[in-house]
Amino acid sequence: MPFFHVGGSVTAMAATVACRGTQIVLPTFSPAALCTALERESATAVLAVPTMLISTADRAAAAHCRFDSLRTVLTGGSLVPEAVASTWIDRYGVGISNTYGMTEMAGPAVQTAPSDPLDRALATVGRPLPGVEIDIVEVGTDERVPIGTEGEIRFRGWGTMKGYVGDEAGTGAVLDEDGWMRSGDLGVLSDDGFVSVTGRTKDMIIRGGENIAPAVIEDAIRELVPEVVDVSVVGVPDDYYGEAIAAYATLRPGASISLETLTSELAGHLPAYRIPAHLRIIDMLPTTPSGKIQKYRLVEMFDAEGT
Fold this sequence. Notes:
Helix content is about 30%, strand content about 25%. It is built from nine helices and 14 strands. The strands form four sheets. It has a five-stranded mixed β-sheet with strand order 1-2-3-4-5. The two termini are about 35 Å apart.
């Protein structure tokens, strides 16, 4: 992870220093270089966002890497697909530690432990870390929703920012006088304290009045469509429904897939209104330097096509 990002500077570097560990630093991210470093240096842990884990696992399979010393995969930065975590657990016998937080909270605020039950490790981002409180409220309000009900995730704790420098309006929009920090993410809190992130409030697709979380569709495609390496789903303009679902996918070498095949693979597993109306194959999903997929760029690409 880059050191200008909280994932690299706090989750990776500061945490390694705190436990007197040794950090292996790569100048830039490369699946091949990461595989080589993990093997050659007998690394016991690796930190990588989901897009990195997907490409690294693909490279490792092709190169027959064993990762015998690896014990823990620490991940976060975006919603971690269950299929991605399962690949690392099943193939390399590692423990998965999902982290969830934001720069405004000084990094991770919620985390799973490698020793957590498998269903919790795969389907949640864990429980609040010491000194952190979690609240789930109706989107745009301060009204708390019942346990098990989806709403917007809020944080409060020792790492909460004081505000955005020179931006009082921006600060007031996300941070209230009681110290609660709005995440902009949708989630559910279980009765045993585990948090599940279900999507982004801004990413929500509204098709014909139906609210659709892209993550549900993305997870289904990764699990059910073997040709696909990674996928990102966005809402695009539609004259009839207001928004339609478009899937941008990267494929395994030599693979091909049509919209008709994708529809057939998903039929019976997703309701018809959640099956993408558009499929675009691209060489690489656009990401930030920290590995988060830039969905707005996919929408721009679709708009530029004029279809």
